[in-house]
User: What shape does this take?
Amino acid sequence: MSPTDPRYDILFEPVKIGPVTARNRFYQVPHCNGMGHRYPQAIAESRRIKAAGGWAVISTEECEIHPASDVSPYIEARLWDEGDMKRLALSVDAIHESGSLAAIEITHNGHHSGNRFSRLPTMAVSDTNDGSLDPVQAYAMSKRDIATFRKMHRQAAIRARDTGFDIVYVYAGHDLALPFHFLTRRHNRRSDEYGGSLKNRTRLLRELLEDTKDAVGDCCGIAIRLAVDELMGSEGIESNSEGREVVEMLAEMPDLWDVNVSDWSNDSLTSRFGEEGSQEKYTRFVKQLTSKPVVGVGRFTSADAMVSQIRRGVLDMIGAARPSISDPYLPEKIRQNRLEDIRECIGCNICVSSDMVVHPLRCTQNPTTAEEFRRGWHPEIISPKHREAGVLIVGAGPAGLEAGMSLGRRGYNVVLAEASDELGGRVLWESSLPGLSAWRRVIDYRVGQLHRLPNVSLHTQSLLDADQICEICDEMALEHVVLATGSHWRHDGIGRAHHTPIVHDGTVPVLTSDDFRDNERDLQGNHVVIYDDDHYYLASVLAEFCAYKGAKVTLATPASDVAAWTVNTLEQTHIEKKLRSLGIHLIEKHSIESIVDSCVRIAHNISGDEQHIAADLCVMVTSRAPENSLFWELCDEFETPHSPQLQSVDRVGDSLAPSTIAAAVYEGHRYAREFGQKPDPLAVPFRQERIEIN
Ligand code: ADP
Ligand code: SF4
Assistant: This one.
């Protein structure tokens, strides 16, 4: 282990947070994880690993303080009563094991608490709609409700302290928390002493800080999480007016300021729409107004950028949610001067989608996330080989690269053959598209690691057929083949809306993303119709790509919104805004009927009303076909290899079932973990956390 580069020593200085001290400046801010109260052992194990990885403070996600703050179906933490303490204690103990501090974000989300499970009426600052589309409203809190809420919050703070937490939050961020709703003119229409002037609107936040300090401040640090700018101009809180004034008013009250921008889609901005450190311009004023430590986020993965934040007096502690998911050992790798080993977050927000879709965390870069407990996967440790064996991997996209790297780390003899000139598969092309350059980190991290494994040999320009695979395996004594040959986009339009090919008379060329990758095209002055029945990012990125090449672009989709699934990665609004700003014509709720007579004919999903769009090109983004022909040449219908010298032939990633890059990485990793111990396909492949029967 190399000593820490002296340039980074500053990151390892301790920071005092009220009565407790963080051992360094790495602070994992609260983040959703889809495990919460439902999978307490899973989230505890994940936090144990982050603590061992060097994060000095590890925070819970939002923690409901009472059934009246229920955010079901989202799975967050819970501290409704004493019965919930032992679940959270698992996390606290795991965090303390490595000398880190445990922070808890106790929360009431006001009108965003749908109380769908508890069925209690929802309290809010003013009479208002629920934060969802549910046909329910929240009611304006009376003084008695405010007093009750303060008691709930205080009671939760005491339970948090008794559970062993070191830092207790007062949460006023993201346009989600009740105290934040009180702050904003937009939500707060009260005429009592909690409404009107900013001083009045800040009253509840001040009271909560006083209550929490009084209840647990002797042994816990009190943190405030505040959104200092909502990026909505004068309609919201702005960092140069009310955001600043709130910080001025409360400057010395908390022991720590955790500041960010709102809403969540601005805070967890994807790399497509913002650079590392993009919040600095909004949050940097805070340190000038308080002597208390300030934490902020910015998808920080560069040690130099972190040092710069501290040296320039922007932040005292480096806040991170996504970088800590992508690499739980990020602080340790900086401390050990192993920067090249950092698995940098790519800013894709697949992690966020886990919470939105309500399942345990997933990450494109870190396949072990949320698998620490149930599968026993550690992000830095993998068991050595069970015996000598050799594996030929065909295809070096994310699945092949991850399988090669992980098998290589286990010590197996690995040969990785890739048809094209460069390693990386689909990510090579996609990361060259507008806004996606950070995605290249998926390749860079893995190729960097593979080059350091002497037992892995990498071969580009090696398009293999079935005979060649058998020959190579024979010559090199490789008994196992993994096909990671990926997929290709379908030209025929088959997808969610169409189960048979779209009628097409050849008058409009039909292309896919793969055709743009393989051939430069002059699109100047062309009218390009992009048909999106995929609903993730690709169609919108191709629309940008074509617009930048001078094409007139129309994007049609059967969904109600363009890039509809990206609501889960918090990108939908950003995408739509961007496409509209580029003059791209968006047509929602329409499917293609046919492509004939030089027109793309689309029809409204419900009315069937047709539009005929004269087009020079039509780009299909509907579904993908797996590249699995090699598999069926090498195996019979029971998946048994024809060649007796091959012990196994498997498919991983898109060549089996086209999916996200995250899924391809995960499948490549799973293959490597399970190699040599084929699991029983009828058994549950992981430990389950069952709900206790009370
Ligand atoms: P995944 O997401 O599953 O990793 P990708 O499509 O990103 O899939 O990558 C698949 C890779 O496999 C591509 O780089 C492609 O060039 C390569 N490939 C496909 N068929 C062959 C083959 N027969 N021989 C060698 N490489 C192949
Ligand atoms: Fe980063 Fe994407 Fe992983 Fe989230 S899923 S932590 S954004 S790499």
The CA atoms of residues 255 and 365 lie 34 Å apart. The first strand starts at residue 15 and ends at 17. The chain is about 30% helix and 20% strand. The pocket of iron/sulfur cluster (ligand 2) is lined by residues 322, 325-326, 345-351, 363-365 (CB under 6 Å).
